[in-house]
Amino acid sequence: MIYLDNAATSWPKPESVYRAMDEFLRTSGGNPGRGGHSMAVAASRMVEDVRLAMARFINAPDKDRVIFTFNCTDSLNLGLKGLLRPGDHVITSSLEHNSVVRPLRKLEQQGVRVAWLSPHPEHGFVAPEDIEKAITSQTRLIVITHASNVNGVIQPIEAYGRLARRHNLLFMVDAAQTAGRYVLDIEKQNIDLLACSGHKGLLGPPGVGVLYIGERVDLDTLREGGTGSHSELEEQPVELPNKFECGTANTVGIVGLGAGLEFICREGTDKILAHEQELAARLLEGLARIKGVTVYGAKQPADQAPIVSLTIGSSGPGEVGTILDQAFDIKVRTGLHCAPAAHKTMGTFPRGTVRLSPGYFNTSAEIDVTLQAIEKIARMGDLEKHPAGIQTKKA
Ligand SMILES: Cc1ncc(COP(=O)(O)O)c(C=O)c1O
Fold first, then answer.
1. Does residue 33 sit within a domain?
2. 302: which of 99, 222, 230, 236 is 20 to 30 A away, CA to CA?
3. 97 C-alpha to center of ligand 1: Å?
4. Residue 395, exposed/middle/buried by CB under 10 A (0-12, 13-18, 19+)?
5. pLDDT at residue 85 tops 80
6. Ligand 1: does its nearest atom lie under 6 Å from the Cβ of 93?
7. What is the 329 CA–ligand 1 centroid distance (Å)?
8. The pTM is what?
9. Ligand 1 near 99 CB (within 6 A)
10. Is residue 141 part of a domain?
């Protein structure tokens, strides 16, 4: 089996992640902040250790501004809906995932105005000059994905961050596809709100995400409830992180994320990115030699996260994905990847693409086997005309 769907969620996880979660549930699985007994205290300590590790990882000055959420979507919803009010103007791109697009569409219905900027046709990312031109007196926030989950194009967040600071705007980054492999530095990149998935490049389990809330940001809550602190109050506590972490946390997920972070720090993000980019470059080089394959991505592989989107002739991406899965045991994602706006921008709407996203545990040999499979599929021509052309395992 070859797993090439790490942009959806990373798999496998490092052994240390499985072990840490198993051990936590067996030995320290109390409810953090809810009681003074040793298991609750041990759970609190472990959660706070991971919060500190995450803060260090993104060079955040204050660990209490690292909020644990349930995924990147949760982080983005909290950041956007907790901040924006009717009359506010927001600048974003037409490459965004639905977890940015849908909250913004909802906010538009409530009177928030949004500028949706297209990437520059030359280099594939939104030009900082275009962002500057879109700023109005009502602009409050620039929110942008660091890397597109459809074609992998990296956007220049340092330039956007400098621009936001110069114009006294807030800057939010969706780092779902980059956290764990690219440098994220709250201070140097002038990031006010950083949203991450815990289960993709950070190598934790599903059900955990992170939102960093900078000091210039005053967010309202989207949820209120028990925090284990100030139990005498009927109002939500105001101090961070408790203000935004109510209800029992996904402690075992947070501990798994901590083990993922430890693994990444031990290996080094440079080494992780270099390996993944080598695999993506091998894939791109091989695909360029296969007749009938169209690849959608950056001009240079180095400007692209390890995410490769393609189509094969007029064959439907779904059919290609089914054959890859059932005849070759290769797991990829097909369709619109929850980002219809990006596909409209790239010209691949409504069918979408076949997306291959190598991770740190993939090998060159797996990429070569995948290329051979794609070549066989491409040789078949239009799959709709030959639905039974390659025998699937189930057939
Ligand atoms: C760019 C981008 N943003 C946000 C998300 C949402 O992440 P999550 O699944 O952790 O909510 C994804 C998920 O694929 C993504 O690719």
1. yes
2. 99
3. 7
4. exposed
5. yes
6. no
7. 25
8. 0.96
9. yes
10. yes
